[in-house]
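Reminder to self: tokens first, then the designed residues, so the page reads top to bottom the way the pipeline ran.
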């Protein structure tokens, strides 16, 4: 049917009312009734997700009528999706609706900061609101499934997908995971403005060796369960509807066919009731991994392990029928998978709701205000010599320099399918709005982050000379982070360091704003500037957020969700490491690069660089300053099963109202499995007026002190515990208690 005709014949499905969400029992009854009528081909069609629908062709129309696909990803225009849905519901034998999935990763039309930047807000409610906005925008365009949140703990900034991750810490990531699931799924899947969320990539994708994407991960079970699995568990507890497996092998077995992960942990231990989808062509890739002998073998391994929908590749549809007939795959396995798919479609209301007429969306003043707020909270102030920021009234004119000052696509960051450059306000645009064109002297110096030409340097230097200060917008283009964008060097690419050197010669004060998809290494550059503000890739409204921060209309409050190394050779470096038997001594820190080891120093360190990070996890400055005092424990010792309250007074000593993320860490001093030197257990974002003091209290029960012992049992062992209330993972005020 031609696309204009379907609109005429299809009107009856439009525009009418919603039915109340069916109960779970009613859904089960309808799923079973439908399943009983399905052929094996139709079942395998449901288990297949296609990426082929760039535009809706006649061939695809026919495939939809034939029940060939259960789902499309990243497909078509809103009008194509509406027509395809109409065909599925009215012209296919059983009228089973399609499920349209898409990578709505950090916003749909309104682009929020990359997920790593969102994590730097330490503000679960705020990022829940961002996810809610993304869901509202995407669902209006007939998308009801997002492949987010990405929950891969990442401790290796070489890995480009660290941009999509919630950072290095399982506790912070778990809090964010739950918030994102709530945001995407809203008040429930039956709300037409909700998206089914997808916790991905299950699991340990962030642990790929050498930070190289898709590489193998070797992770001991304790680490798997303590570090990589908790965010997924949190997403499931928050009701996430679906889960995606990862591309990599975990301890030699592809995650896509690992029944220990997909059956034992996910279904048996966690009772996950939702749908499991493979990643893009991950099923046949198991042949290349050296795990499956051919495509049919890969399909059998994947489905028997628990993959229920195959993304893009077609091994299920091509090979499962004879495998079912021969008994190598059971009918029950197929039926269970199809049940999960149909159940989700019923839960989303796709069988019952009228097909929305094709609509498109654009950012609204509200969504843009929210994006600006998230960008503001995600920026982390790393250096601020002599309180140079915010820029004073006396700074009348600024030179705006650097390849990221006016680069909408780069500012949006990785995984942006639907954001539009025209909606983006860059720092250049925002500074011109704020100060007027006369006060902004723009000379980028470099055309993009990898540019090595010095041709633009002279103009940049002249601009700096003419201005009262220069702000350098440095970092990485969006294409340098994200999937398959691993880097072996983490320095500022191209001639950016040379550009800073050039400007430093002017003697004008310099400020660096870094936009990047990962922690970069920029030790020398930082020594040449007064201040460093790390903005990640801040999204549509990054410009106004940064301009307001620079000029003190907003106060930085972001805190690093991941450790920043001094150099690539320190990786992996993360705060929650174990102690060695020979920790580096404080007086051994700071050995300048190039000096030989002292003969006495048989400790765990480097001879050419300090062992500490450049900036620790949890770190971030403010324009105010906060003091932490009066740590109090409600008890010095508690019994097993008991709890105590840890509190401290936090005072804003500065002259501005400002927010601070107060962090609670513990250390189990002696345990049958050695425990990290510090472990985040809670945090709270508070806002204090100048001079104001707030007492921040956290409760700690003995279950919060538990860890996995060698028998994989979660235990709290009696003994000494250290506890900190802290502004970051390396400082704070410390107390001690015992568990008896
Ligand atoms: C990525 C997934 C993504 C999928 C669909 C894959 O390459 O690993 O995260 O959801 O593509 O676009």
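Designed residues (740 positions):
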């Amino acid at each position: 049917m031609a696309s204009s005709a379907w609109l005429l014949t299809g009107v009856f499905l439009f525009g009418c009312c919603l039915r109340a969400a069916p109960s779970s029992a009613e859904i089960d009854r309808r799923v079973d009734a439908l399943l009983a009528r399905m052929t094996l081909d139709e079942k395998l069609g449901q288990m297949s997700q296609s990426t082929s629908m760039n535009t809706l062709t006649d061939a695809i129309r026919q495939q939809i009528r034939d029940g060939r696909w259960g789902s499309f990803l990243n497909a078509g225009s809103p009008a194509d999706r509406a027509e395809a849905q109409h065909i599925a519901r009215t012209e296919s034998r059983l009228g089973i609706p399609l499920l349209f999935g898409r990578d709505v990763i950090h916003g749909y039309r309104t682009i929020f900061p990359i997920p790593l930047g969102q994590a730097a807000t330490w503000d679960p409610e705020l990022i829940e609101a961002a996810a809610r906005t993304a869901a509202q925008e995407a669902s209006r365009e007939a998308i009801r499934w997002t492949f987010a949140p990405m929950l891969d703990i990442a401790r290796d900034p070489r890995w480009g997908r660290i941009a999509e991750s919630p950072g290095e810490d399982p506790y912070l990531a778990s809090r964010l995971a739950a918030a994102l699931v709530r945001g995407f799924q809203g008040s429930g899947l039956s709300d037409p403005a909700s998206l089914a969320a997808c916790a991905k990539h299950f699991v340990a994708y962030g642990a790929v060796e050498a930070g190289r994407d898709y590489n193998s991960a070797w992770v001991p079970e304790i680490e798997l369960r303590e570090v990589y699995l908790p965010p997924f568990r949190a997403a499931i507890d928050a009701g996430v509807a679906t889960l995606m497996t990862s591309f990599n092998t975990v301890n030699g077995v592809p995650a896509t066919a690992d029944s220990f992960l997909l059956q034992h942990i996910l279904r048996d231990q966690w009772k996950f009731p939702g749908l499991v989808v493979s990643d893009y062509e991950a099923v046949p890739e198991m042949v290349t991994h050296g795990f499956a002998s051919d495509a049919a073998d890969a399909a059998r391994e994947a489905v028997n392990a628990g993959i229920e929908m195959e993304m893009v590749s077609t091994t299920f549809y091509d090979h499962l029928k004879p495998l079912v007939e021969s008994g190598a795959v059971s009918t029950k396995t197929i039926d269970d998978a199809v049940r999960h798919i149909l159940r989700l479609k019923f839960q989303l209301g796709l069988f019952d709701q009228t097909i929305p007429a094709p609509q498109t969306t654009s950012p609204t003043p509200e969504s843009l205000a929210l994006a600006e707020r998230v960008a503001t909270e995600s920026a982390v102030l790393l250096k601020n010599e002599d309180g140079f920021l915010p820029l004073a009234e006396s700074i009348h004119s600024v030179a705006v320099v650097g390849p990221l000052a006016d680069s909408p696509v780069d500012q949006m960051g990785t995984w942006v399918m639907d954001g539009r450059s025209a909606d983006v306000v860059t720092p250049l645009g925002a500074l011109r709005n704020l100060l007027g064109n006369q006060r902004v002297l723009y000379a980028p110096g470099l055309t993009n982050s990898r540019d090595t030409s010095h041709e633009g340097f002279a103009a940049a230097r002249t601009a700096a000379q003419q201005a009262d200060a220069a702000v350098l917008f440095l970092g990485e283009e969006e294409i340098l982070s994200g999937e398959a964008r691993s880097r072996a060097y983490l320095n500022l690419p191209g001639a950016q360091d040379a550009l800073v050197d050039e400007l430093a010669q002017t003697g004008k004060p310099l400020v660096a704003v870094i936009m990047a998809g990962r922690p970069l290494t920029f030790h020398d550059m930082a020594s040449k500037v007064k201040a460093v503000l790390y903005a990640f890739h801040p999204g549509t409204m990054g410009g106004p957020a940064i301009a307001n921060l620079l000029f003190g209309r907003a106060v930085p409050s972001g805190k690093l969700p991941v450790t920043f190394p001094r150099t690539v050779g320190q990786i992996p470096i993360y705060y929650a490491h174990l102690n060695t038997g020979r920790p580096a001594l404080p007086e051994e820190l700071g050995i300048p690069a190039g000096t030989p080891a002292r003969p006495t120093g048989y400790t765990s360190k480097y001879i050419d660089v300090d062992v500490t990070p450049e900036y620790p996890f949890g770190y971030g400055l403010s324009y105010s300053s906060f003091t932490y005092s009066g740590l109090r424990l409600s008890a010095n010792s508690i019994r097993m099963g008991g709890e105590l309250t840890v509190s401290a007074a936090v005072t804003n000593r500065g002259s501005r109202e400002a927010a601070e993320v107060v962090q609670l860490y513990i250390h189990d001093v002696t345990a049958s499995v050695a425990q990290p030197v510090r472990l985040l257990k809670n945090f709270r974002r508070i806002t204090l007026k100048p001079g104001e003091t707030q007492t921040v209290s956290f409760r700690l029960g003995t279950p919060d002190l538990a860890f996995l012992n060698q028998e994989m049992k979660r235990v709290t062992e009696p003994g000494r515990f250290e506890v900190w209330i802290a502004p970051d993972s390396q400082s704070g005020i410390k107390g001690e208690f015992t568990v008896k």
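The first helix runs from residue 3 to 9.
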